[in-house]
Amino acid sequence: MWTKRIDLESKAGHVVIERTAKRAFVITSTLNDEKCSGQASKTWERSTGIYDDELMQIAIEVQQRSDGYDGSNSEVHDYFREMQRFQD
User: Fold this and answer.
1) Which pLDDT tens digit goes with each residue over 35-88?
2) Contact at 8 Å (CB) between 29 and 42?
3) How many domains are there within the chain?
4) What is the C-alpha separation between 31 and 68, in angstroms, rounded?
5) Per-residue buried b or exposed e for 25-49, using 16+ beta carbons within 10 Å of the residue's own CB
6) Rounded Cα distance, 64 and 72, in Å
7) Whole-angstrom Cα distance, residue 64 to residue 49?
8) What is the DSSP string of 12-48?
9) Residues 35-48: pLDDT tens digits?
10) Nearest to 33 by CA among 70, 69, 65, 75
11) Cα dihedral across residues 49, 55, 58, 62: positive or negative
12) Contact 58, 83 (CB under 8 A)
């Protein structure tokens, strides 16, 4: 069984994590940024074989973008755990 898609909402933006193929997934972080006249997005495309270290670095950036501040370890780990659902 695989998770196909997760949507995460927060005050500063939202994140979509979506499986695109059996061995790949995409993380899209979209900000609600008034300076950008709407929304600013950043996308990461990764293999399901991604290592935890690299996934944690993405989780740190996604948490900062989504919540609008540098979060605590537990806040970052909330995002990290959701992303781990897409690893092999």
Assistant:
1) 655 568 899 999 999 999 999 999 999 999 899 899 999 999 999 999 999 998
2) yes
3) 1
4) 9
5) bbbebbbeeeeeeeeeeeebebeee
6) 10
7) 24
8) SEEEEEEEEETTEEEEEEEEEEGGGTEEEEEEEEEET
9) 655 568 899 999 99
10) 65
11) positive
12) yes
The three-class DSSP label of residue 54 is helix
**Residue numbers of the domain that contains 46:** 5-84
Q: From CA 59, how far away is CA 73, in angstroms rounded?
A: 11
CA 86 – CA 22 distance, rounded (Å)? 10
> Which residues are bridge partners to 9 per DSSP?
14
Nearest to 42 by CA among 34, 54, 53, 33: 33
52, containing H or E segment: helix 52-67
